[in-house]
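A common beginner's mistake is to predict each chain separately and then try to dock the pieces by hand. The better habit, illustrated here, is to supply every component at once so that their relative placement is modeled jointly.
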Amino acid sequence: MSLYQINYNFHGYSTPTKKHSKVKAIITEVAGYADVAKQIIELAVNGAAQNRSYRRLTDFTDTIGNRVSGSHNLEMAIKYMYNALKQDGLDVYLEPVKIPHWIRGNESAEMVLPRAKRLAILGLSSSVATPPEGIEAEVLVVQSFEELKKRASEAQGKIVVFNQPFVSYGETVAYRLNGASEAAKLGAVATLIRSITPFSINSPHTGMQSYQNGVKQIPTACITLEDAELMQRMAQRGQKIVVRLTMDAKSLPAADSFNTVAEIKGWQHPEQVVLLSGHLDSWDVGQGAMDDGGGAMISWEALSLIRDLGLRPRRTLRTVLWTAEEQGGVGAQQYYDLHKVNISNFDLVMESDTGTFAPVALQFTGSGAARKVMEEVVKLLAPINTTKLEKHGEGTDISPWMQAGVPGASLHVADSRYFWFHHSEGDTMTVQNPRDMDLCSALWAVVAFVVGDLQDMLPR
Amino acid sequence: MSLYQINYNFHGYSTPTKKHSKVKAIITEVAGYADVAKQIIELAVNGAAQNRSYRRLTDFTDTIGNRVSGSHNLEMAIKYMYNALKQDGLDVYLEPVKIPHWIRGNESAEMVLPRAKRLAILGLSSSVATPPEGIEAEVLVVQSFEELKKRASEAQGKIVVFNQPFVSYGETVAYRLNGASEAAKLGAVATLIRSITPFSINSPHTGMQSYQNGVKQIPTACITLEDAELMQRMAQRGQKIVVRLTMDAKSLPAADSFNTVAEIKGWQHPEQVVLLSGHLDSWDVGQGAMDDGGGAMISWEALSLIRDLGLRPRRTLRTVLWTAEEQGGVGAQQYYDLHKVNISNFDLVMESDTGTFAPVALQFTGSGAARKVMEEVVKLLAPINTTKLEKHGEGTDISPWMQAGVPGASLHVADSRYFWFHHSEGDTMTVQNPRDMDLCSALWAVVAFVVGDLQDMLPR
Ligand SMILES: [Zn+2]
Ligand SMILES: [Zn+2]
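With all components supplied together, the output reads:
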C-alpha cells in the first residue's frame, strides 16, 4: 500500500468553534490528537515497531562502521540509508554537498623525558602533519588560555599541553577548537589538548579544530585526561618533559557527498515542512552509534511510525540526514543556503544530536505564541511521561533556520554519560538501549505529526 | 630520633582487673585506645600527614610507571621503595623471590570479515605468541563454557571469542583464566576473551591466564566489551567473521625479585607480628596506582603515622610489599613457605588490594572470640565513621596464612568503579583521591597498632 493513496483526514472534529478564543481553540485542537498520539506511542513502545529503531541502528552501524567526512564509509552509509528509506516506502532524494576530506593517517606520541611512556592520542580534524620523523620538543603545560598568556615567553619552540579542567562541553571545547592557533601565535611547535570529557579510561577524544587566518598551522591532537594530569604533576615538580609527536594527517580536496532526505508529503500543504533531523557522518573512531546514528534513526523511525499507522498530515514531514555535521554543519549550511528562499514554509525544525538515551523533555525555541502551542503538544506525551517543554531547542544543524526565526526543537535525554563516549572509540552500540530509542522515536513522531497536522503553522 | 630508643608504654591503665569477665576485660582494654586512635586519625586526616599517602603514591607511580613481574620497572620500584622506607626511619629488608617473566611485545588484532576493523586487545600473561605472520581464522562466538561445549564440533580451527556477560569478577574471571585451554581442547587456534569488566570505553583489560597441563597452548588475549558484543551480533546475523591476531609475546626464565619488608619492632614481643600488606607489582598498563599502589602506600603510611606519634606497640608491625601478586601471589606464597615455621607468632595478617577509595568497613576472618575483639577495635574508628566489621577478610596474598588459621583482615572500600579501571590503561592516579587515602591509612594504622599492642594475641 502506497502512502500517497491515503487521504484520510481523521480529525475534522478538531476544528475550533468561533466562540473559543484563539488559545482555547488551539488547546482543543491539540487535545484532539490524544488518541493518535497514544497509537503512535503504543506502536513504538509496545507494538510491532518495538526495538525497530535500535535494530536499524545496529544493522547500519555494524555494517558500515564509522563514517567520517570524505570517507568511503560515509559514501556507503548514504547509499545504505538511501536504499533503506526507499525500501521503507518513503519519498527519498539526495542533495549534493561538497564536504571536507581530512585523513588521520598514522599518528603516535610518546613521552621521552622524564621517562618513556606511550601517550594515547587522537589527532584533530584539519590538523597538519608533523615532519615524517616527528616533532620532539620540550613541553609547556598550562591549565588555561590565561595561564598561556602569562607564560607567553616560555612557549617558543615548545609543545604546549593544555590541561584545562572540564567545565562543560560548550565552554571547554574552546581549547580543542582554538588551542593550536593560540599556542602557535607564541611560537609553539605543536599542541596536545586534554580530551573534552569529564571521565576517562585513558580514552582520547577527537573532534574539530580551527586554524586562525594568518597564524602558522601547527600539528594538534587530543591526549587523555590521565596523561594531561600526569604531565601537569611532572611540571609542578619542576621535571623537564619532552614529548615526540608524529602525525601524517593530510587534507585532500573537498569530496562529493549528499544530504539524505526522506518525506511523507503533506496532503493539504505539501510545500509546508516540519523537518526532523540527525547527522549521518561521525568521527573515524567507534561506530558513531550515539553521535549521531541514534538521532538519524529516530528521525527515520518517526516517519515509519506515522506511515505504519496510515497517517498523513496536512504538511510535509521531512527527515534530513545531514552530511559533514562534525566538520561544522557543512551539509546543513548548504541545505539552508539552498532552501532559505522557502523559509516561510518551514513550520518547525527538529534535531536530535545529543544522544538517544531516555527522553526527559522537548527543548523548544520560538515565540511566546508558538510556545503556547508546543506546551499543549507535549501534553500528548503523558503516556511516556515526557510532558516537559524546556527552553532552548538547539542544534548545530538547525541553527541557521532558528537564527532566521524558524521555531526549533531538540530532544533532551538523560545524557549524563554522553561526553564520556563522544568522539571516542567508546561511541558504539554498547551505549544504546532499545527501549530508550523507542521512547525517543515515539516522542519525535508525535511532535512532528501533530505540529505538521495542525490547521495553522506555528506562529513566528 | 630513632624509633627504637622510645620505650613508652602509654597504656598501663588498660590492664584488666581480675573481677572482669574476659569479654568485659577486652572491651575495657580496647576502649582505652580511644585517645590514641583519635590522635592517629587526626594526624592522618587533618594533621601534618594529610595527603601524604596520596603524595607518596603520586611520586612513586609518576616516577616508575607500571611494574609488571620481571620488568626493569619492578626492579626500580623495589629499589625506590627500599630507599623511601629507609629514609622514613623504618627497619627495612628485602627477601629474594624468583618471579615469572613474560613480555607482551607487539600485538594487534583486526577483523577482516565481514568488514575491516581494528580490535583493541591486551594479550594475557603467559600467553604464547602467534606465528610472526599472525593467525587468520574464522571466529566462533560463544557466551559461556556451556555454549562452547554444545558447539564443540564448530571450534576446530577457529578463533573462539568468549562474550560472557560480566556477573562478578570472582565468577567471570574464569573465562580469562581457563578460556584458552578449554577452547584448545576442541581444536581452536586462539581465543579472544571479553574483558572482565562491567563497563568500558572500548578499553581492553589484561590479566593472568593458566594453560592446563597436557593441553595445546594457544595464543590468548582480551578484547573489549564493545567488540565482543559486535561480533556476537554479527554471528547472530549469520555473518562470517574472520579475525587476524598477531602477538609476539614470550616467556623468559624466572627473574630475580624481592618482597620488600619494613617494620616497627614490638617492644615486648618483637617476634610476634601484625602484618600489613599490598603488592608492589602491577600490570604493564596504566600506572598501577589503584592496583595496588594504593594498598602498598597505606601499608607504609600506617607505620609512618604510628612512628610520627612516637608510638611503639608490644608486637612488631610489619609491612610487606609483595612482588608478583598478579602472577598468582608468587611473592606471598614464597613468604609463607619461608615464615610458616613461625605461624604461631602471626597475630593478624592484613591486605589492601581492592582499591583505596573511601573506606566502608573492615573485613575480618577469624574465630568468634577474635571477632569479639575486632568488633571492639573498629569502634575506635567512630571519628571516621567506619565502625563496621564485615565477614570475609580476604586477599590473594594473605590467603595462605588464613587457610592455616591466622586471623585475616582486609579493607572494604567504596569501589563501585574498581573493575572499570582494573588491569587497564585507566589504572592511573586520576582515579585516586587524597582524602580517601588518608581515611584508609588512618583505619589501617589504628587497627594494626591496637591489635599489635593488646596484651594478648587474637584468639585463634
Ligand atoms: Zn553529533
Ligand atoms: Zn592487585
